[in-house]
Amino acid sequence: PPVFRAEALTKTYRTGEVEVQALRAVDFEATAGEFVVILGPSGSGKSTFLNIIGGLDTPSSGRACFMDQEITKLDDRGLTRYRRDHVGFVFQFYNLMPSLTARENVRLVTEIARRPMKAEEALEMVGLAQRIDHFPAQLSGGEQQRVAIARAIAKNPEVLLCDEPMGALDPATGVKVLEALMRVNEVTGATTLVITHNAAIQDLAHRVVRFGNGAILGVETNARRKAPS
Ligand code: ADP
Ligand code: ADP
């Protein structure tokens, strides 16, 4: 059964006189444990799509469901609860608290989560067992991003949404971040969607979705990496 289902999602932004059609009737489904990569040129609607299914934004029309729940019907409180309980986010910039260690940054989340894992467990999962008591300034960009991934996954969300998580990193460092995401996906079974410009990542995904001009232009299933079902 799908974890997510989006039906005919559209989003129109208005700035003064100007209207931008960010999404045009997007349909999408993801199953439990899937690792999906989202590709497409800048401005093609990838972030808008991710933000809507993550409950950070609402569509102009269409619906999005998470399990049995129609998230596009939720009010602000419902959306806040949905994000808190079910969704982990990773963005291009890590937004770690500079005055807190890696462990303390992750604990900010585990302390308020419903069914968290231990901060140490999350940090070990992303390969940072040796960096648990380091401060962000003592970590490389890739390591800081892995702390951010540990923070996103420590609450045990069903869904992990990543918007250009390698965008600020050089390719070699980006690969390590990608490997951390794949490991998290395998260990926790969280359905993982990753927006990226890095074409190398395609081979590792279960499925690749290509956006263009606010629509999904194509979906490819990776014959060499079968999604769990
Ligand atoms: P992508 O993630 O593929 O780069 P986005 O979803 O960020 O694309 O943007 C899709 C389109 O919507 C772009 O034309 C962008 O300029 C526009 N857009 C995105 N967010 C806003 C906003 N808050 N206000 C106005 N236009 C926006
Ligand atoms: P290509 O575009 O040829 O697939 P990459 O995606 O690896 O190559 O990107 C080339 C360089 O640009 C890398 O250092 C990568 O980390 C960086 N990069 C990619 N996307 C972004 C982005 N959105 N913002 C900033 N840097 C990026």
From TrEMBL:
Domain ABC transporter: 4-229
Record's keyword annotation contains ATP-binding: yes
One Pfam family here: ABC_tran
Entry protein name: ABC transporter ATP-binding protein
InterPro entries the record matches: AAA+_ATPase, ABC_transporter-like_ATP-bd, ABC_transporter-like_CS, MacB-like_ATP-bd, P-loop_NTPase
Top-level division of the source organism's lineage: Bacteria
UniProt keyword annotations, A-Z: ATP-binding, Cell inner membrane, Cell membrane, Membrane, Nucleotide-binding, Transport
GO cellular component: membrane protein complex
SMART domains associated with the record: AAA
Entry similarity comment: Belongs to the ABC transporter superfamily. Macrolide exporter (TC 3.A.1.122) family.
GO molecular function, one term: ATP binding
